[in-house]
Amino acid sequence: MEDERPAKGPKIVPVKNKMPAPIQITAEQLLREAKEKQLEYVAPPPRQKISDPEELAEYRMKKRKEMEDAIRKNRLKMVNWVKYAHWEESQQEIQRARSIWERALDVDYRNIAIWLKYAEMEMRYKQINHARNIWDRAIAILPRANQFWYKYTYMEEMLSNIAGCRQIFERWMEWQPDEQAWNTYIKFELRYNELERARMIYERFVVTHPEPRNWIRYAKFEEQNNYIKSARRIYERAIEFFGEEHLSERLLLEFAKFEEHQKEHDRCRMVYKYALEHLPKSSCEDIFKAYTIHEKKYGDRTGIEDVITSKRKFQYEEELKENSMDYDTWFDYLRLLESEGDVAVIREAYEKAIAQIPPIQEKRYWRRYIYIWINYALFEELEAENIELTRGVYKNCLNLIPHKKFTFAKIWLYYAQFEIRQKELASVRKILGTAIGMCPKDKLFRGYIDLEIQLREFDNCRRLYEKFLEFGPDNCTTWIKFAELESILGDTDRARAIYELAIEQPRLDMPELLWKAFIDFEIEQQEYDHARKLYSKLLKKTQHVKVWLSLAQFEAVIDESDSIDRARDVFEQAYKTLRTANDKEERLMLVENWLDFEKERGTKESVARVEKCLPKRIKQRRKILSEDGTDSGKWEEYMQLVFPDDEAVQPHLKLLSMAKRWKKGQDDVSTSTNVNTDNDMSTAKTTTETEDDNIPLPESRIDDEEMNDES
């Protein structure tokens, strides 16, 4: 019995590379290659030679039957009708072909290709009347098919039937076709030099198609035929027809170029200006360029400046469209308009500018804006000379400002000065009084006081100063001005009382100015004892070196017998007082001024005595601390002033010098026993650091005399 073994399946071949092939082949490509490489060759049908009429009739019968069957299967397929008609035409069966075309038109009379082929067949066989009949039927059924009209007019023109062609054009124009049809009609008339007829067609054309390019074409037609006045009239009619709302940039450009060709530069300039005034600013770039080129060619300096001004105005307006709160651009724009001098335009621009109110009520946002109001008021007063409108501008501005949060003293003062120019003093005082009551400011007080001084109303000035000092008693300038006013008026006691009251104030913003003014006042009045008392009073408050120097200079300048001794006593007293101060630079300043005084007014002995007070400059080292206050491990050198009086107070300087000499003596003994210790010793620089407080001892230079004294 044979072993029954299971049947083996097909061997599976493992795919080694599953990556896509570098060149991908589509199914479409496979089908195309199979079609190109097909091996079956279909031989063309054999050519049949017809030798007698019977065979020809049989062939024709067979073809007609095939054609009719194809049409019967799908009568809406126009290709079968066209093939059938062309085949009959090739057999010279014109009547049969005509019948087929008619049958095709019965099936689809809207097929333009059938009409065209039908008429072309008649034209090929010079059947003119038949062709006219077909064209007439076609344009009657499909009057919007321009191909019929073009073919029909072309056929009549080729037949030299000009009148008939013109009649067809007129029939066509009644349907108001597109622009190309009108242009074709015009060119037809121009070919036969019928200018008047062409002009009449243009008149109807611009009415039917009122586009700027058609008006331009009409005007150029007149210009080419040297009808200059007629061309200019056409441009003017076109501008009137479109009006300001629908004005075309291209139309105005062509009009300006036309005037330029005729060398009418003034007319050309007027056209450009009209365009810039009435066209939208966004569509004026080409106008600006053409205007600039024209002025550079034919204009003078004024014309070129006008072009540049117009261009800048356009740029400003574009910037303001993007950001209406750009007040700097408003200033430039308004300044440019003011240079042109059109009051109505300037006023309108100012109204637009002041309407751009800052959205936030903070003074820093209103600073630039408020100047627009000021410029507006000045323009109305000085340029337009409209007083009532100027007053209204100031009032509206003041009503707009939120005075409870902030105010502008400048606008109040400008308003008051305007009323002064109008000689309305009552209004001026009312305005400034309202300003001080609503928002008291230093500038308002000063402006009001200056006004009253100019009017010589000194009692009002005193009352204003009193109000001013109630508002700001710490303002030293106000006290000084008040006292100066009384001094000018000759009331010395009142001025002195004001100064004394001022220096007794607990808080002052600049007391040094007040004290200086008071002292200068006393010196001018030659009240030297009062001046000395003031200096003494001031020195009780402060020991500043400039006060001492000023006192010494005062004593030295006054014309008295003991002025030099008094000045020297001031210097000595100042030097003793400043010894306890920590600021050594002030002491140095004092000693230097004292030395200059002695060199100028003193003796040699006094100069030598002051020179002994000059300090020495000693180089020392100190640790550098980091930002957090810890030791950074670094050292820095600095110069320290050491006055002769300070050396006696600082014993560590003597101790340091003695330590240096002892160390030097020990070194000399160890090296040589023949060294004479009485010789002069040179100064050595050393730096030592104490163990107790870890503070570096200063390194100083010791003079020979000092070393000998201490030894």
TrEMBL record:
Biased composition (Acidic residues): 702-711
Protein name per Swiss-Prot or TrEMBL: Pre-mRNA-splicing factor Syf1/CRNKL1-like C-terminal HAT-repeats domain-containing protein
Primary residence: nucleus
Region described as Disordered: 665-711
Record keyword Nucleotide-binding present: no
Main function: Involved in pre-mRNA splicing and cell cycle progression. Required for the spliceosome assembly and initiation of the DNA replication.
Domain Pre-mRNA-splicing factor Syf1/CRNKL1-like C-terminal HAT-repeats: 81-364, 372-533
Gene Ontology BP annotations: spliceosomal complex assembly
Keyword ATP-binding assigned: no
Taxonomic source organism: Rotaria sordida
Key words of the record: mRNA processing, mRNA splicing, Nucleus, Repeat, Spliceosome
GO cellular component, one term: post-mRNA release spliceosomal complex
Signal peptide (residue range): none
Location(s), subcellular: Nucleus speckle
Polar residues: bias regions: 668-687
Similarity section: Belongs to the crooked-neck family.
